[in-house]
Amino acid sequence: MLLALAVAGAPAFAGIQQQAQGLAAEDRQCLKCHSFESLSKELEDGGTLSLHVIGDAFAQSVHHWIGCTNCHRDIDLDTHSQATGRKPYANKREYSIALSKVCNECHEDKSHLYQGSIHSSLVESGNLNAPVCTDCHGSHTVATRASYETLTGVPCKQCHENIFNAYLGSMHGQARSELGHIQAPICADCHRAHDVGAASIGDRLKDACVGCHQNAALQHKEWLPNAGLHLRSVSCAACHAPAARRKVDLMLYDGERQRPLSEKDVLPHFAKLPTAEQGGTVSLDAVELWKLVRAINQEGTAAEVTLRGRMEVATGVDAHQLAWKDKAIRDCGSCHADGAEPFQEVTVSLVREDGTRARYDAESEVLSSAVSLNSVGGFYALGGTRIKLLDVLLVLVVLGAASVPIVHLTMRKLLRKDRAKGDRK
Ligand code: HEC
Ligand code: HEC
Ligand code: HEC
Ligand code: HEC
Ligand code: HEC
Ligand code: HEC
Ligand code: HEC
Ligand code: HEC
Ligand code: HEC
After folding, report:
1. Quick check: CB of 87 below 6 Å from ligand 1?
2. Would you say the CB of residue 325 lies under 6 angstroms from ligand 8?
3. Is the pLDDT score of 212 beyond 80?
4. Model confidence over 142-177: pLDDT tens digits?
5. From the CB of residue 348, how many other CB atoms can be counted at a distance below 10 Å?
6. Is 133 in the pocket of ligand 2 (CB under 6 A)?
């Protein structure tokens, strides 16, 4: 009572009465103080936390019927605005992370999914920029599910702005923004909203594409020999983002445990190398790579480690510059030609503890050098650096679509021969 009287004397009181129509009396009680824009709290790091809550916005949120104290259960009105009731918080981020835990109490399913996500493991490993519930949903303005799946309301763009802009220009983004086709995917349709995974590990993203484009495998078979192999070893974006820079990534893969090798298994071997993102000037050559793979295998920490080749686009932004199908790359020569662009940039990668991928630069020769035959395995045999193959191939392609099986067989034969030659080197 004492508190209420104290506030009743405040000059802006009449205005506050008109706010937050439809809220329970207890909630309006809280807003008597918290609708003051200037109300704030000092944090231990010297910063301030604004304590201003917009009652009208809360009244329009999906939670308007949940009383303030159902989320803020620890608030004791008698003491909480006074010195004795003051709780210390280190900084704004710590406050958000602590308070957002309340969402888990009623949305256990989402919280469970979130806890398996890369965002959650980033938060746990101390990344202050990775999101908790309230970063994506807000705290007092939580809206319906549909609102987070629109171009204006999608929460991901706050932090992945460059990717959002690239996505907007993609055919999926255009289908939404210009054609109004809401069945075209937005971030969470490919990445999921709560159990967001690491982008370049596993088949999850590819499976998302194929989930909507169920005929994709058949459609590519019509013109692309060995379509299955291509769809496995070439990322969809490497052909569908025609303007992207492409490269080859060799992922260290633990055959015994059937998963990508993790950094902590082999850190000493990599500790000296700067990652590609750090603009490393040191890059692995074929002999070093061979030694590395051999050393890892001998150590016994992870047996049967091999390198899995995959052609992918160079950056996360590139991966979202997808274009309509008539722009997609179908020219065999853009990959199967001497000195073809995608083979000039090579990285070797493994998985960090937080789930993201660490990439290390390698010399492009690791793909063609005889020394790498064992370490780089199947991917090495690619026609990407052999012009003779292209000539034969083009002649055969000119013969027409009917000859696709012949192209395929001939390619296989040629590659076999080449493989054999490589072996003898
Ligand atoms: C008499 C004014 C007043 C009323 C009424 C009031 N508060 Fe506060 N509140 C404050 C002040 C002042 C602070 C800052 C206290 C501090 O510095 O620790 C605060 C801090 C807070 C904080 C942030 C700090 C923390 O401890 O988490 C929350 C959340 C909060 N109030 C919620 C509520 C809720 C919910 C109600 C209604 C049940 C309410 N307040 C009613 C004045 C008020
Ligand atoms: C659905 C749960 C929920 C309800 C209902 C709720 N809050 Fe909050 N509130 C939170 C969370 C979570 C935070 C922490 C937000 C952050 O910083 O990430 C928070 C933060 C706050 C803060 C600190 C300032 C800020 O915005 O970060 C104040 C003050 C506050 N709430 C007051 C209120 C009042 C007053 C009401 C009722 C009108 C209310 N809350 C209703 C969940 C809730
Ligand atoms: C990285 C952003 C992000 C984070 C973090 C996040 N969400 Fe969501 N959430 C979304 C998006 C986007 C949607 C709408 C799309 C969907 O549901 O697939 C959504 C939908 C929801 C829905 C409605 C789903 C339905 O099926 O009706 C609930 C409830 C929800 N989130 C709760 C939570 C809770 C609780 C947390 C924290 C444990 C959380 N969210 C963390 C982005 C996020
Ligand atoms: C006290 C229980 C409770 C708490 C705590 C709570 N919610 Fe909710 N939330 C609900 C209920 C119940 C609904 C369904 C409301 C409706 O359909 O009108 C809901 C709806 C939602 C929706 C919209 C779902 C849809 O289908 O459109 C989202 C998003 C959401 N909550 C996120 C959150 C977030 C984020 C937090 C933490 C800041 C949180 N909730 C805290 C009970 C809670
Ligand atoms: C509050 C900021 C924030 C929001 C909101 C956010 N993210 Fe993230 N996200 C991060 C940070 C930080 C990382 C760590 C890697 C980085 O810096 O890009 C990350 C990483 C990722 C990764 C993994 C990248 C990798 O290296 O494999 C994906 C995928 C991702 N986010 C997708 C999403 C999607 C989808 C949404 C919306 C549903 C979203 N993010 C919302 C901050 C955010
Ligand atoms: C059509 C499916 C699709 C949509 C829609 C989509 N992404 Fe992606 N995203 C991908 C693919 C595929 C990759 C790259 C995987 C790889 O490296 O091979 C990726 C990669 C990422 C990465 C990791 C980038 C990096 O640096 O490694 C982030 C972060 C991300 N997406 C966020 C988003 C956000 C935010 C949105 C919405 C604006 C979004 N994505 C929309 C499919 C999609
Ligand atoms: C949620 C379903 C969904 C997902 C996931 C999805 N797409 Fe799409 N995609 C669509 C729809 C719908 C269209 C048609 C857009 C339109 O015409 O309105 C489309 C269009 C396309 C087109 C253009 C076809 C044309 O006619 O030019 C290509 C190519 C394509 N998608 C490739 C991909 C790739 C690659 C991925 C994964 C990285 C992917 N899609 C993920 C639904 C999806
Ligand atoms: C080697 C290059 C290449 C790769 C890899 C590739 N595509 Fe394509 N894709 C194309 C080309 C070229 C077309 C256009 C074919 C045409 O118009 O006849 C196409 C067409 C499509 C279409 C439109 C089909 C139609 O006829 O409407 C979809 C959808 C599609 N691709 C999805 C995917 C998905 C999903 C992946 C990854 C799993 C993928 N593509 C991988 C080159 C590729
Ligand atoms: C975007 C790059 C790209 C394009 C375009 C492309 N390929 Fe490939 N192709 C590859 C890669 C990478 C491999 C090797 C996959 C592996 O070894 O894991 C491959 C493998 C092959 C193989 C199988 C070789 C073997 O070892 O069995 C044949 C045959 C082939 N391509 C023919 C073609 C033809 C014909 C075209 C044009 C219609 C074409 N490719 C277009 C990248 C491409």
Report:
1. yes
2. yes
3. yes
4. 999 999 999 999 999 999 999 999 999 999 999 999
5. 27
6. no
